[in-house]
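Example record

The entry below shows one chain as it appears in the dataset: sequence first, then structure tokens.
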Amino acid sequence: MKDMKAMVMTDIGRIEPGRLPVPSPGPGEALIRVKSVGICGSDVHYFHDGGIGDCKVEPPFLLGHECAGEVVALGEGVQGLCVGDRVALEPGIPCGKCEMCMTGRYNLCPDVVFFATPPVQGVLCEYVAHPASLCFKLPDTLDFEEGALIEPLAVGFHAGLLGGARVGKSAAVLGSGCIGLVTLLAIRAMGVTEIYMSDVLDNRLAVAEKLGAVTVNAAKEDAVQAILEKTQGRGVDLVFEAAGNPASILQTASLVARGGTIVLIGLSAEGVLPFDLGKIMNKEAEIKTVFRYRNVYPLAIEAVRSGRVDVKSLVTHRYAFEDSQRAFSEAVTEKARIVKGVIQL
């Protein structure tokens, strides 16, 4: 086995079949046969726009970082994994030596190597070599699709942990795309039951409502006014901004209750954002920001295994590996229909 199939981004908006060498697992690495790849918003930006901010794609390039598969070979010195194990891959490889890594905040490592973040290639191919320590075994009850979705779910749990989500807290999630919805799933699993969710797309709000949120269509009514009315003017303890939209970022100051916490998850394409710091300071509210996640893969996997989180409920579209071009094109053009797409190998 010398080469493998790959779906290669050959130009902006164009993915074509290709062949690449099969990687060899080095010391401490496992070779994974990729089985499922989730389509993330960052992938769609690279596909459609050719980059995110200063991070530009230079084709040929492989997209995809939400990944699960089967161990087919092991490099020297690997312990705790066996050929045949089914695993979810945590896609960021930190240096392990810097201040951030040594203090447990490895998601902030300045030298992290992260799948499908240029110039690092993604996983839209048959095989990938990855550190065994970042390959997490899946329980027998979880399939590969659920394994791939552990990655976005990890973002939701990291946001919930930063915000202090727990029983007795109330929350609002602004933006019900995939990251907003996994945040909803995570904080519900952590005990939050009073959750309000806003968006402008009815299909996404319908999913949020099925998952237990009180929903507000911000295109049809004033989301701030609606949520304040539902909370008798108090607001909510936790506000999660998951859209990266300047308008909803500005809303966080009005929605957070006195002494509450704002958690910024969504990444905005704009550099300078509107923020009502006077109102936030008057409430002595905290502001937390999210950059990916750290130390939460086992928690996210257990949440799915135990039935506390139904991550498959987010998947609306499934595509064959050979249909990757259509999958990404529809992720751009069919936002009103697609909540989460997954490519299956």
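Notes for this example: The chain has a mean pLDDT of 96. The longest helix spans residues 150-163.
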